[in-house]
Structures
1.
Amino acid sequence: MIHRAATGVWTALTTLLLVTPAPAAAQTTPSAKNSWTLSRTPDGKPDLQGIWSDNTITPLERPKSLANKEFYTDEEFAKLSARLKKGEVGKEADLGAARPQAVRYDLELYGFDITKARFASTKRTSLIVGPEGVLPPMLPEARARNTRRAAERQGHEFDSYENRPLGERCILMPQEQIPMMPGANEGNLLQIVQGPGYVTLLHETDHSTRVIPTDGRPHIPQQIRQYQGDSVGHWENNTLVVDTANFTSLTAFRGSSEKLHLVERFTRTAADTLIYQFTVEDPSTWDKPWTVEVPWRAEQGPVYEWACHEGNSMISTILRGARVAEEETAKKEAK
Amino acid sequence: MPIDNEGAHLYDQQRNMLNGFRSQVIAGIASAAVLFLGAAPGTGQTPAYRALRTADGKPNLNGIWQALNSADWDLQGHAAAKGPVSSLGAVFAVPPGLGVVDGDEIPYLPAAAAKKKENQANWVKLDPEVKCYLPGVPRATYLPYPFQIVQSQKEILISYEYAGAVRVVNMDAPTKSPADSWMGWSNGHWEGETLVVDVTSQNEDTWFDHAGNYHSDALHVVERYTPRSADTLSYEATIEDSKVFSRPWKISMPLYRRVEKNVRLLEFKCPEFAEELLYGPLRKKAGK
């Protein structure tokens, strides 16, 4: 999917960038010594600009053994980080697609170095905030909906391009989907560029771009549905608040419906730290909203062009493989 | 240095007078009104229009813009013609156009001219836009879809509705491209009222239009965006490619601001629309 030439260069650069040591304690409030002031754009808005990465192995949901413990102490966090540097990870980490047993096709994941991974600098035990730290229960109607969909797909996974995942079709890849969920080390650079009245979020993944107006305008008409929904923003003091609705039913964020409603909040708390919070609600899927907090860390870039569709030989190879397998089965049965 | 809008204007006006602008001396310069310079008769040396400034004193190009011509069909002058899909009749016929090429001639080298003809004869199969591939520069500018300019201090981001194409123009000290790409590597700077963008490192896989006009990986494009009124820009692109053309050549066209209230770029994720074409033949046959 990714142009091979760029991939090798990108892998090398990413590994190089992850060598930069994390700041000792990227707090959410600057200490007296750390006199950082939030700079402003020429039109007076908080400056969130830069190139950011949210790679982390802190899991979305809290490990059961940690019960209501929302934060690690400084000591615990230091111990975890020290073990990680030796390549040791336990249940407190989620390696996602970078875990040793995962099936991988992508060059970038082959270059994954576990000692360069990080826990979230917020010292949270899970990305979901709150005492429970887990996803709220899924509503019965959502379970039924998703079960029905899975049943319809069963046995037809390779019939046609329409049956393949949106990521494989280069329509909506996991690292470009909103809300923005981190991976262990997957390519996910985010570049923020601000102009008067707009904040632009440019994902390296599939060059996905959201140009978000901040003038408080309403959403686009209800009947216009988009894979990435429609985002409108406004400033609340130093925080950018983005409200997104108008999702399609195919977007299906963790099994959500087209009623998905998302509120994201971006606050820069240090020169190299952007705190990203999002609240997800979907009255057809979960019985209550849930909130996630992820720290983004400044990176050097550059952001490369990710021409997913142009280089997509994967989907045709997969479909062709299915057709070949069917031919062979048919030949055997004919004998 | 921070000069407010009126201060900057007064500074420019005095400078123009010193440059030999011989029209009537304007007395009482200390006036609250912002004056626009009138068109210099015939000389073309001073800009006809001075754009409003951004908060950091640069010409303000922020906004949603769109070309209004048939350049994406054919850069050169062309008559209307039947379209390639007869079942779509007049809905998908080729619209006529006066052409956007200076001198209306594209100076192909002899061998390249033959390839252009071949491209044109087979454009439905070969034009990368049919497959929803990224359009490259300058084609991205004159596709029949709007694009948005977001102007920051060190970067100018241009987001195109078509295929979500995007590029970030570096406005700081020029940097070198790390790798070839579909949309190229853009370094920009200001020349008076004009944004000049130097685009290199585009791969050879894009076309300029449906008429088969193409280039190699030696393509070098210099764009010029100049405000010509509150709601229009003048766009020029100089194209050179020593493997394909015998000399540089230039296209030019106005760009129009989309002025509707709350106008937005919408999603046009067109890989989905090209899938049947690309992967339809790989579909499981019925009855198996």
2.
Amino acid sequence: MVDSAKPVPPIWCPGCGDFGVLAALKKAALEMKIPTHDLVLVGGIGCSGSIHNFLEINGIHALHGRLLAQAVGVKLSNPALTVIAAGGDGDGYAIGMGHFMHAFKKNASIVYIAMNNETYGLTKGQASPTSQIGFEGNIERPFDAILTALSIPAPNLIARTFSGDPKTMIQVLVEALRFTKEGRGFAFIEDLSPCVTYNDTYKLWREKVLDVSKVEGYDPTDRKAMFRICLETMDSGRIPIGVMHRPKESSREGLEAKLLGDADGPARSDISVAPNLGAYQKLLAGIA
Amino acid sequence: MTTPAAKTSPVPDTAGSGAARAPPQLSDVSVMIGGQGGDGTLTVSDLLGRYFRKRGLYVYLSRNVLSRIRGGHADASVRGSRAAVAAVKTEVDVLVAFDKEAIEIGKAELAPHGYILYDSTTFQVDLPNATGFPFATLVGGPLGQPIFKNTAAYGALSVIFGFDPIETRSVIEERFQRRGGEALEKNLKALEIGRKAALETPGLADRFSVADGDAHDFIMTTGNQAVAMGFVVGGGRFFAGYPITPATEVMEYLQRYLPAFHGVVRQAEDELAAVNMIIGAAYAGARVMTSTSGPGLSLMTEGIGHAGAAEIPIVIADCQRVGPSTGQPTRHEQSDLSHLANLGHGEFPRFILSPGTPEECFLITVDALNLAERWRLPVILLLDEALCQNATTSRRFELDKVRIDRGERLTGDAVAALTQYKAYAFTESGRSAYAPPGTPGVWAEITGNEHDEWGHVTVNPTNRVRMMKKRMEKMIRARDELPRANLFGPAEARIGIIAYGSTVGPVREAQGLLTAAGTATKLLQPRTLYPVPVHEIDPFLQSVDLCYVIEHNYTGQFGRLLRETMPWHHTKLRALTKYDGSNFRAPQIVAGIKEVG
């Protein structure tokens, strides 16, 4: 047995919602029986983005907001890897917004967990894109990631979980890991993960969350119905949680499958000259 | 290593209108073709280039286009020469004009013996050395479309130059055969229309003749194409980019080349995504590259710094254009060097490599991929617009010069023999072995935060100093692996010139002119610009009395780097710079050297 990087103790405050994600990730990965060396976690910048340090895993710490671009690069380079991107709402919905929107469109088979605490915790409690009006003087309306995700017509898995409900979270994570393992595409999970120090919303959110699967007409394969259910739930002052979209088709819609089929991909190609010589000669003969 | 003797065109005697005398022979010919974007000026230059190549001439094609899809004046020039030239010729022998602007611009560049051929469909000019044919009307009737006017103009040119009719025709066949029956047929008809018009005009046939050359075993290519080919044979399998002039062709070529090798090319949503996608792919173990130009480079700066700190091997091809801001997207400049040498916040190592010809683009791209992986850092391929986009005759790219060196990359078997795997291990060589994710039995933390050997984040000051040294000393340790400088000219010359990138072409031609005028010079072409190769440049500067640093920017950026790294040579260095958007022509360099003194 070779010694590899060991997890370090979390930097999070006691009671942080991110602990829920950490525990759920461990359980889901165990349930899926993914070998450690095949698991990659791309972390963003912020408290939540440091999660890769606390797991026995291949961890890569991306730049602020750029985790999805890096995660897509990892997956397209070696499709055999299980790739999870994890970061916060500031990372994903502010500085990373361009990449966030395009991740749905690209539909590479990666899991993205956005831990939403409606604040910038690590820099001590500034308003974030999801902050409510009035929080730290915020006068801009909060952004809703689920409605945005539903607005992009791609065969993604879309869900919202709550750190106060670990059982559902594990269930959704397992589904997401399976979804990406099958090469079906992008799995987005927004986890409501309270910041106990700067925006302690545990009690409020526990009262407000509503499991959409219990709403009449719930059908995650029907984008229109889910858009309506989410809007109506929000209008009634509640926060919709659960699986919001699950594509009807179970085909390999993932970007890596479309580009590479069953090929090993760029990272595992034999790039020495000898086995490629004939093809290289043909390539060079193309310029006269 | 030979300095090409500069050929000055013999001035042809046109007094007899070519009737009784043998036609004046040119061994170095230049044709400028100007018109509105969409007039097909580039096609004419391409056809002429193909013909000259058939006759064994060295060819250099350049273009002056506007950043728009259609319309606006654009011009192209084609040069065919018996000497190995890699620059635009100063004087134009024949100007082909599809609009009035072409005449206004081209007249000034016309040689005393020069001739103007123009499309008189919409305008007339009253000049003694000009002939107009209504090409658009001539082809518009029989062929139904005026767009074939450019091929008709090529036909008329072939008469003026006394081209071999069969080879003139086979050029059209080669150019249009892939487009199929109708396109080929109509272009052949247009050719004959143009030829007939010129042949029926007294005094036009055989005004010039062009000497054959002996450059036969050559290919015609651009730096952008060479970089794309070098990337593939260098084992590059993942490319992400964002469209930007003049870098886009690298991505377009790779979109054609890479799928056959199960490679991946992605057009990203912006340059931030492009550089981070290649970072992710390189982390996962692929050989990667992106290509961009100034504005995109500014955005990628963040990611390049991250790759430097996290020790992730990436290659960035910077096809320089006029900056700052959007600058002049289609024009030539070499003004990103200062930015690249200091690029990013904080301090991290990087190599900046500078090819000067397509062949060097091909081989140095392979070097860049090897160096990036061996030393686990960002490598920048510094290109420029003229190098990227001007097509030239080039020696064939040789596969037996291609070596793949992945550094201390760990495979499953090698890992099994280890007791521990630290992705940032301190070693004698300064290089840490790397096992990409997916390697059975091991995993690592990779981060741009300061980290220990395991990749764990730490603020320990002793570790910080060791890690900084580990990274920064790559620029010292790798010295002898970096591409070496080329030297052109006699060792005993006391006047030195330093130039890099496409500037080397016109400088070598200028050396020929200077030699003919009795001034011996020697040129050092560094092919690594950063870290500054002091071990190559210091002895060179010691061997000369003074040295001109010739480059395309306002402040003399490489010259400033030389002064900074070798202040003891301060008094020897002279800056000769140009920043008007076009690349140097040889006589401008000769004049510039006289002026600077």
